[in-house]
Structure formats: structure tokens, C-alpha cells
Recover the amino acids of this structure.
């Protein structure tokens, strides 16, 4: 993990930033303009400091990208090590992992956004995409297990299901506003209800209604 | 619509392209490098013709973008004028529109991809985003109507439902391979089953299984 000085101390220092806060601004700028289109000059402008002051915190633009992607990937990978992801019925483990993935998405929104928009043009990007594929692959394995145990429908190719499910979850970064009326918890409830139980009212309920 | 000459005739001509085929290559290059990062020089290189030969087909890079976005938006907007979108129960009209949207996504994949990745930095982009929002807004209206008529569950905020549904549909452009084993028709069946009936087997079926 990235070591940072006590932020109180650092903020009184002249450049006004520690590595973590430089990173936070950099990620916002990368998401706005695209990583490739963002020069160190643009970053310096957005931070209100000189280019050499940025190099005091981080050796290169690629390192900023690497650190930012680590924030997202490290948090996602850690989910799979949690007890809820490894014990119990596959269906419950799958739900647990999806709920926690939504937590990470909403808590680390700009970092996950950056990860999901990667094109894979550099070594750092290709490495991050490989780790993301590995995470997706493990979640797909949980879906297969849930299907095997008879919890999930089997008339849809599991590859299609996995892709549609990730498509739904990943699209959250495009519109979710942290701190708004919709909590991460309620969003997770809604997504799980929709994907696993469907939007249609059960026929019985429709007859009564 | 764009008028094109018979491709057989045109391909024997010297520049080797008509406007539609220049457009098709341009869209692929825009999707690969990003619209802003693509210069007319890069386009010329990919087309294997000179910059001035491109200007013979289209006055500017912005016009290529406008024509490409028209391909996507015109097709999407036309769906809402079809009889299946305007007559019958809201639930059926909604399903019709979603199925046809998936058709357009898979048939005009690169054009819709370009539309979905827009950042809105130019007038042409902002205009296209406005038309896309208008389309989304009309589909959201159908969902509201389906909920009103008692076809859809009402414990999820309709704005959340709409966003998750579009997230799922739009994510198709990121992975769908036209001409592969998964037909557009089967993909539409799968997506409709998953979103409206859910991935879980009904409890009764699970007890039997």
C-alpha cells in the first residue's frame, strides 16, 4: 500500500498535497479528459502546482495510473478473500460478492471508473485489465457453481449471464452519485432483486393487482 | 440518409471509397483511439488515402462524427415509430422496444459504440447526447406505464430500474461479436428473461430440482 505522511502535517507544507490527494485529483482529470489526453502539464494546472512539484510525489504519469488502478483492483480482489465469499451455498456467496462489489464501486467510484474505461494501450493498463479479467473469471466461477447447485436457471449460456450481470454492475459508475438519496445498500438490494427475481410481478400478484 | 454509389463500381474508382465506406473506417478508428485523439492524418493513414482525398468525401472530422452518430440515432429513433412500439399493453410495447434496441445495437454495433462513448465536448456530441437522452426518456416512460398497469414490481425507484436496464443493454456493445454463435435474437431472449423474470429458478422448481 501507498505510504502517506500525516495529511495534517503535509497540508501545511508548501505544495499543499500528499501523494494520495495528488492521486485523487489525477484520477478525476484522467476520467474527464482520458488518460492518454492528460499531460503532466494539464495535471499541474488542475492541482495548481508546478510539474516538478508533482514529480516530488510520484515519478511519472504511469505511476499515477498504476497507483490509482491498485486502489480499485486491490479492493475488488480483497472481496474474494472475505469469509462471506468462501463459505456457504454458491448462490449466497455469489450474492455476497456482488453486494460487496457494488460497495467498492460506490466507495471508490472514480478509481473503478478509471479501471473500467481502460483501453489497454500501455503495460500498466494491460496488467490491470488482466487482473480485472481474473476477478471477473472468479465471479463467473461462482455463477457456474450456483447453477450447478440448482439455484440459477440453466436456459441461458453462463457466459451471456456473466456478461450481462457485469454490464449492469459496471454501468453503475456512469450515473451513481455518492452521498445522494440512493444508498449503496439500497442500490445493491435493487440490483439483486432485478437480476435474480426479475422486474415482472409474479403472475399471481398480477392477477390479484 | 447518405446516398452511396454501387460499391462494386466505386471500388474500381481511384480513391477506392465512397462516403459510406470512409465513414465505416472512420468509426472503427474513432472507437479505437477516441474521437478527439484521431486526427485527419491518422484517418488518412488507416484509409490508405491522402487527407485531401478524405475531404473529397466529407468536409471535416466533425461531419464524419455527425454522419456516424446519425446512423445510430436515426435507427434508434425509428424504433419508437414502429407499430409494435405504439399499440398494445405497455409491458408488450416495452419488450418490443427493448428487443428492437438490441437489434439496432448489434446491427450498427460500431456506430452505437461511438454514440455510447461520447463525452460531449463539441456541439455535434452535445446534440447527439441530447437525442440519446430523449430516446432513453421515452423508454423510461414506457417502463412507468408498464408499472402503472401493474405489470412491473413497484418496490424499486423507476429511475434506478431504467438506469440498470440501460446499463445492461448498452454494455452489449463492449463484448458482442456479430456473426458469432450468439444471435441477436437469442441475446434479446436472454436479456428479456433475465431482466423481467430473473436468474433464480422459481422456488417451486428449486424444490423439485
Amino acid at each position: 500500500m501507498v505510504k502517506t505522511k500525516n495529511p495534517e502535517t503535509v497540508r501545511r507544507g508548501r505544495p499543499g498535497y500528499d501523494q494520495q490527494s495528488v492521486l485523487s485529483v489525477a484520477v478525476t482529470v484522467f476520467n474527464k479528459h482520458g488518460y492518454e489526453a492528460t499531460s503532466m502539464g494539464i495535471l499541474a494546472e488542475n492541482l495548481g502546482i508546478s510539474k516538478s512539484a508533482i514529480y516530488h510525489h510520484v515519478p511519472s504519469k504511469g505511476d499515477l495510473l498504476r497507483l490509482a488502478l491498485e486502489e480499485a483492483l486491490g479492493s475488488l480482489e480483497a472481496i474474494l478473500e472475505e469469509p462471506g465469499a468462501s463459505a456457504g451455498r454458491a448462490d449466497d456467496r455469489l450474492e455476497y460478492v456482488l453486494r460487496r462489489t457494488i460497495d467498492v464501486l460506490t466507495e471508490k467510484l472514480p478509481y473503478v471508473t478509471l479501471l473500467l474505461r481502460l483501453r489497454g494501450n500501455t503495460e500498466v493498463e494491460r496488467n490491470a485489465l488482466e487482473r480485472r479479467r481474473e476477478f471477473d473469471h472468479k465471479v463467473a466461477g461462482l455463477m457456474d457453481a450456483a447453477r450447478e447447485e440448482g439455484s440459477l436457471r440453466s436456459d441461458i449460456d453462463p457466459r451471456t449471464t456473466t456478461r450481462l450481470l457485469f454490464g449492469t454492475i459496471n454501468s453503475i459508475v456512469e450515473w451513481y452519485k455518492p452521498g445522494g438519496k440512493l444508498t449503496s445498500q439500497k442500490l445493491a438490494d435493487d440490483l439483486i432483486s432485478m437480476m435474480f427475481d426479475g422486474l415482472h410481478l409474479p403472475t399471481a400478484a398480477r392477477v390479484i393487482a
